[in-house]
Amino acid sequence: MKMSVIGGGTMGNGIAHVFAQNGHDVTLIDVKAEYTAKALKTIEGNLARQVKKETLTEADMKATLARLSTATDLAAAKGSALVVEAVFESFPVKKEIFSTLDAACGPETILASNTSSISVTKIAATTKRADRVIGMHFMNPVPVMKLVEVICGQATSPETLACVTQISKDLGKVPVTVQDYPGFISNRVLMPMINEAVYCLMEGVAERDAIDSVMKLGMAHPMGPLALADFIGLDICLDIMNVLHDGFGDSKYRPCPLLRRMVEAGYLGRKSGRGFYEYEQK
Ligand code: CAA
Predict the structure, then answer these.
(1) What is the pLDDT of residues 99-112, one digit of tens each?
(2) Whose CA is nearest to atom 52 of ligand 1?
(3) Which of 14, 29, 185, 235 has the maximal Cβ count within 10 Å?
């Protein structure tokens, strides 16, 4: 099947990687050729890591790369069975992308968003095919994490849900269907935990490493909540807390002032070289 992915960032290149590895022809689209070139380089590096671990053969790596093409114009998504948008979390940007895709693609195309916090219903309403718009929320790192949170907007049809569920299973993922409420399930449960960990740090209940050790060693989480916040990006964590706070109007979702302060300082986690931990800048 022909698939298109919009956005070559961490999520977009991971999604393109997984589609191509599973036999789909993928067009990766971003606004500049240098972004798609960088995305392809990242995919190549991640595939090489799989070859080194002997979970992929050299031949499969070559075949995967051959199934990937790039473009800088959304019109290149025409003829896709499925388009997954994975650009940054800005509704005006997504609105522009979805209305352009709606005009460019035939009626057979399902339009999905990898949004982690924007309403799928609101995105769908920017198109004339709300029944064929759905949320497909992959987790980072996409090639590793099994979950796809499949989000049904108000008008998503059962046929669209069935199709996206099957495609997700064929990728070797486990799709879980959820309804379109703020934060869906993943971030409604994950982000308050991270936010509470930041409160524990701010209030001096324990040091950073102690907080992370409690959750790693006591609850078998692969990363502690503060390390995970750095991995996700503190700005993204703050945005999602704000979405939960605004969406439910419940004070239990108030973002921790320390989280706000760190974002204001530009301490965004791994991507800025500093968050709760410090990182070597690549
Ligand atoms: N592509 C391909 N393979 C990758 C990869 C990538 N980008 N990144 C890691 N891997 C593979 C490694 O090759 C390794 O494979 P093997 O098990 O076969 O050896 C495996 O993943 C583990 O990687 P590492 O050994 O390098 O490192 P690790 O053991 O410390 O694991 C981790 C890294 C997978 C990130 C792990 O720490 C983890 O699972 N962390 C939690 C991640 C998480 O919670 N993600 C969800 C974030 S929330 C989100 O995404 C949604 C949102 O809306 C905010």
Answers:
(1) 999 999 999 999 99
(2) 116
(3) 29
